[in-house]
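Lecture 7 notes: from sequence to structure.
We start with the chain below.
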Amino acid sequence: MMTKDTSMKKHMGMRAANAISNTVIHIVLAVIAVIWLLPFVFIVLQSFRVENTWQVGYVIPKQWGFANYKNLLYDATKGWFGTPFAKWYLNTFITALVTAVLQTVFVLCMSYTLSRFRFKMRKALMQFMLILGMFPGMLTMIILYRVLKDLGLTQENAVPGLILVYVASSGMGYYVSKGFFDTIPKSLDEAARIDGANRAQVLWKIILPLAKPIVIYTVLTAFMAPWGDFVFARYISFGSQAGMNVAVGMWNWLQLDQIGQKYTMFCAGGVVVAIPVVILFLCLQRYYVEGVTGGAVKG
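Predicted structure tokens for the same chain:
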């Protein structure tokens, strides 16, 4: 009887310890979440401030309105979508969309090839691409700029230049997708081949429908990278608003000669830029997590 009482007390003690531990963890996570979200809340609040366009010492606006959002897209002489921001936004959307499509095709084809085919120097090629991908991209910025300039793909023509750079080395990001393809039984490929399907049909009609999480993961990562790129985009689109993306264009609003008049518009622009990515990620986050975890199972 004493043993039973002791066991019950021990069990209750463990439950109490777990409850206290979980409470502390939830409190810490809540504090971290509040700290992380505060800057975004401040930006949203400032985007609705219309009484003053300068930086001020308070957070909650004294006068609310949508003037900053209207000024982003409406020009008194050119009408709606005649502003530089609208052009920057369009450039960013085109760059991200085209890059997402092409990069997804290249990555999935490369991943399927390395997962299913066996050929000479296969492992050496995989290791070479993996090692090459460890070098920071900034090491190649100077030579890339010279090549793009010789091709006429800088400044006002920076959008096709950015797409070319983003897509050119996309096949090197094969490892996550390849890991996911490795988890799909090869017997499916063999059965489809016996039924007369070629390699392309096996990939597009058999494998990809089963690999929906990794396809969506690849699309999301390929779309979000160019959407928020600043360093390389500024490097090749300087001096011409026609070729800038939103990150580069809005950065100009933070310069000393413009921040006084454009600060609240900058906050509104940040909200507008973030909305599509947030919605896209929230709608597809389940597939994103499945793609990451599934691709990490095998190498």
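Points to note: The first strand starts at residue 74 and ends at 75. The beta strands are 74-75, 79-80.
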